Amino acid sequence: MLSLTIGIVFCVYFTQVVPVPVNGFLAGSCHNHSECASDECCYTEALVGGKRFLSMPGTCKKLGTEGSYCLVNTRPSASSGMYYACPCASGFRCQGSGQYDMPLGEIGSCRGSSTKRRQTCRSGSDCAADECCVSDDRPIGRRRRETIGAHCQKMGVDGSSCYVRYGSGKPNGTVYVDCPCTFGLTCVGNEIYDIPLGEMGLCLCTK
Q1: What is the C-alpha to C-alpha distance for residues 58 and 126, in angstroms, rounded to an integer?
Q2: How far apart are CA 129 and CA 125, in angstroms?
Q3: Is 159 exposed, middle or buried (0-12, 13-18, 19+ CB in 10 A)?
Q4: I need a labelling partner for 56 at 20 to 30 A (CA). Which of 46, 64, 76, 116 fits?
Q5: Nearest 5°: phi and psi at 27?
Q6: 119 touches 158 (CB < 8 A)
Q7: Whole-structure pTM over 0.70, yes or no?
Q8: What does the pLDDT average to over 102-113?
Q9: What span, in angstroms and rounded, lies between the C-alpha atoms of 30 and 158?
Q10: Beta 150-154 vs 92-101: how paired, if at all?
Q11: What is the pLDDT of residues 30-64, one digit of tens each?
Q12: Cα 152-154-160 angle, rounded to 5 deg
């Protein structure tokens, strides 16, 4: 008898956590890539607009892995030395989505560069418990073309790109572009829209 294990992400929060100062600023904060671990980058959410932003520290964040949000041509800001999206880790590449976040450029998802053949599928039941079935095609406008094939892909983890319309949890059928978020995570919209699939976002722990 085959057993099926479904992964669920639990969000755990602690109160009154006080960061410990390190080298003159809070632990985990940074001013450039060299101040983070080898598997991290110095990330900032603030677009630099003049010298008034240069004194604001960024945050050390893990490099992108399977499904993580990325910028196709990501590079540290010439002004601040920080990234607006961490690069993909070694063994992954940023696969563009054809959507653009100006002025940062084309956005995408980190995908493994392994040459291993992808497992084909017709529905979610053909994939592992932590995977969903993603169409190799995508709709154009309001018309849906017949699916020419599909493959198994990992469910969204914390920081993965996603579509708000898919919610969270493993779907029974096929989806387009990205899997929904794993149970316990929510696809938080970023007000960027992929027509006709709708608002894009990131899988985050919000509870």
Answers
A1: 42
A2: 8
A3: buried
A4: 64
A5: -60, 135
A6: no
A7: no
A8: 82
A9: 21
A10: unpaired
A11: 888 888 999 999 988 776 444 444 457 888 989 98
A12: 140
> Where do we find the tokens 């969000």?
11
CB contact at 8 A, 168 and 185: yes
The residue type of 82 is M
Q: pLDDT (tens digit, 9 = 90+) per residue, 75-98?
A: 887 667 788 889 999 988 888 877
Cα 159 from Cα 170, distance rounded (Å): 17
Q: Can you give the three-state secondary structure of the chain, one letter per residue? A: CCCCCCCCCCCCCCCCCCCCEECCEECCEECCHHHCCCCEEEECCCCCCCHHHCCCCEEEEECECCCEEEECCCCCCCCCCCECCCCECCCEEEEEEEEEECCCEEEEEEEECCCCCCCECCCHHHCCCCEEEEECCCCECCECCCCCCEEEEECECCCEEEEHHHCECCCCCEEECCCCECCCCEEEEEEEEECCCEEEEEEECCC
Q: Which tokens belong to 42?
A: 């110095």
Sign of CA dihedral 160, 165, 169, 174: negative
Structure tokens at 199: 């608002």
